[in-house]
Amino acid sequence: MRADAARNIELVLTTGARLLADDPSASLSAIAAAANVDRRTVYRRFASRDDLLAAVYRARYDAVEEAIADARLREAPVTVALHRYVEAIVAVNRRWPVQTARLVADDAIRERRTPLIAEVDTFLRRATDEGLLRPGLPEGWVSALLAQLMVNAAESLPELDPARAADVVVDTLLRGVGSVAEPDRASGP
């Protein structure tokens, strides 16, 4: 594929991700117009909005796989790997802001997603074993909390670059939002 054609497809995918996140009924013509490419280019590549959405999901999971690999969750020091992972996923969430709940309905995406979740869960167990995370929390709690923190950082902290947003996420995950270590339960709420 020519470099300009590849750029146009990338632009259509990222524009499509943004528009479809805001309006799931956005048409291919609207996406082409917003991407500033000829609509025939879009229709030649994608037969329907669902085809485009499937390509967006694949691109998102390509980026997630790359983020996990680059974070070196098994090899890097835990705090370094955590920050790398969070920073990369915040960037992925910003670039590909599609609803991940829709992703799991697709069998191919679910097959790609399962080992990625397992890799992160293994890393979080390592972080717990090495004392970075508190043991004894309900199964899946830290993973769910981390995922939501990363989505919220991507959406709610647009003024922060991914590295600074990752600072906020990691600090919140590790220290919480309270100002005291243990509340005085005797004084009540």
Task: Describe the structure in brief.
The protein has 9 helices and no strands.
From the structure above, extract its key features:
189 residues
Structure description:
By secondary structure, the chain is mainly alpha-helical. Helix content is 70%, strand content 0%. Helix 1 (3-22) crosses helix 2, helix 4 (49-71) packs parallel to helix 7 (107-129) and helix 5 crosses helix 9 (162-175).
Separate helix tally:
9
Instruction: Kindly report the average pLDDT value.
Output: 89
| Chain oligomer state | single chain
* Number of separate strands: 0
Give the helix level as a range of percent.
over 70%
Percent of sequence in beta strands: under 5%
Class inferred from helices and paired strands: mainly alpha
Write the layout of secondary structure elements.
Layout: H1 3-22, H2 28-35, H3 39-45, H4 49-71, H5 78-95, H6 100-103, H7 107-129, H8 141-156, H9 162-175
Helix pairs in contact: 1-2, 1-4, 2-3, 4-5, 4-7, 5-8, 5-9, 8-9
